[in-house]
# Entry
Amino acid sequence: MTEPSSTERLIAAMFDAAEIERTGDLVTGEGRLDGRSISIIGTTDRTYIGADVAVAMARCVLDIVRDKPGQPILIIVDNSGHRLGRWDELMGNNGCIAHLTKCLYAARRRGHRVIGLVNELAVSAGFMALGMATDACYALPGAEVRVMALGAMARVTKVPLDRLTELCATSPVLGPGVENFMRVGAIAGVWSGDLAGHLRVALAERPEPGDDRRRLGHERGGRTAALDVATRVRAGA
Amino acid sequence: MIPPRHSYLEASARARLAGILDAGTFREFCGPRARQTSPHLPALGMPVAFDDGIVVGEGRIDGRPVLIAAQEGGFMGGAIGEVHGAKLAGLIERALDIRPDAVVLLLDSGGVRLHEANAGLIAMGEIQRAVFDARAAGIALVAVIGGRNGCYGGTSIVARSCDVIIASEEGRLSISGPEVIEAVEGIEEFDARDRALVWRTMGAKHRRLIGEIDILVRDDIDAFRDAIAGHIGDSRPMDLDALEAEHARLVDRLSRFRDAADGRDVWARLGVNDPDRVSDIEADEFNALVDALEGARR
Amino acid sequence: MERLEFRFAGRADAPAASDGEALVGVVGSGNLEVMIEQVDLGGECLVTVDTSINGFVETWESVLRDFMERHRLGNVRVSINDGGATPAVVALRLDQALANLGKPPR
# Structure
């Protein structure tokens, strides 16, 4: 018996009962909460989203849409971003990830409530493909969300690391962290304590018409320009 | 006499727009005079651009109304920051209000602008959501790739979210850049200086052969214009049948080429007789090859 | 980064502003963008330069003065975002921008 992963432990703690299956780093199944069934699609162990994982997750989404119309879907996000490798690029991993997000979009349009929850880590395209393709994405208090670790960012931008670190203290657009991603509007909130209670509230909320995240980022002071610029362009000004 | 070619690769974003739209029809939104520059770059000691590296607006192609965006690859590698991303998302969202015959995205981008990373990443999610919303409303999204920066990072996912992708032989479409793969995974995994390897793995010909892009054109603004004009109004379904068909295609690809180590292995298995020549042939000959392969498959 | 602002007297009989604009160049390493706008400034010319290379105020002044005098300009606002261009490139872009003023972009 191998130790259950943190994603499996999270599911056990959140639901009244759950039947899940682990295949590699993919964790899928169904949880019961207040007598209601909720589909679960997750990853674990900070996996990399390669072409195989993206397509396997898309399969799960399509099966849920076909077999369980309208059932809510909880996406448990735990990844180190897309897989960096020659074969995955040769196969068009970007197309596989785009396909996964199309499937999640189709589920949302067909009335499935899709909730994201970042468990340990969500990086860049791995956050775009899963966290940002949901109706609302939340995070656990200890989770990390980032585009790139600061050291690598310093090398690529040629901005000295101590200067970047200093700027991160005041700028929510630059540095890693759930708090920053909340401020820019990408993370709706942090789930601490009563996980089932948070899930209940998230499931009960009706999705906003249109994309609400720019307004959220504006209200939370994380993105000062985006809302105004997008509104003006949309108006043709 | 053959008229001189106007290289799309060499042209600026504004020159590309001028060459693609009907003369005198372009109206820019939030243009350089609005001076809507990045609020984040000055703190890092970086110069700003008056349009934040993207031109957005409306115009006509063959008399048909379109919304159009052009990323300027010369500024920050066409990377998406807060303002740049908001201009692109706002433009695509406008399609829901005015219902143009197409939204055309001239992409030339390395992905998220690291200097304002978090705002850039969430903008990607918003742009992609806007693309799906417009497509669901029956509006054709046409992605165009042929600039110096190719189409990388989140932008490569956005491109694959559109109805149609048009690219030149010089176009590249991939999620990770060669340098990033080499830096993280080592030179044995990917030698970024091996340009031929880069083209065989990420280049438009490979992408056309495996069905990730729809049209390959030579590097000429008029050729791009004609190809775009042919896909105005080409809205493709995104219903469950279409998603299942796409899914079957991807599953087939991943199993069929499971052990492929190089683009040449993939092409040979697709029926290309002389994979070593693919990189050298001109667009016309290449397209004839693709037509023959697709004809043979039918 | 450094912001420089210049004001030139301009020519007294400058044509009235016509609200035209021209933008040339791309902000990159060793390159710059120049925007020229025709605005009513009572004949004067205003220039704003945002440059990534500090400490070249005299060079900028001299290149800009030469440009203004060569073309005998008035009622224009020039705005520059500079990624460290040489004076020769600056002069070239200024001339290109002026040549494009009032022309459709190509």
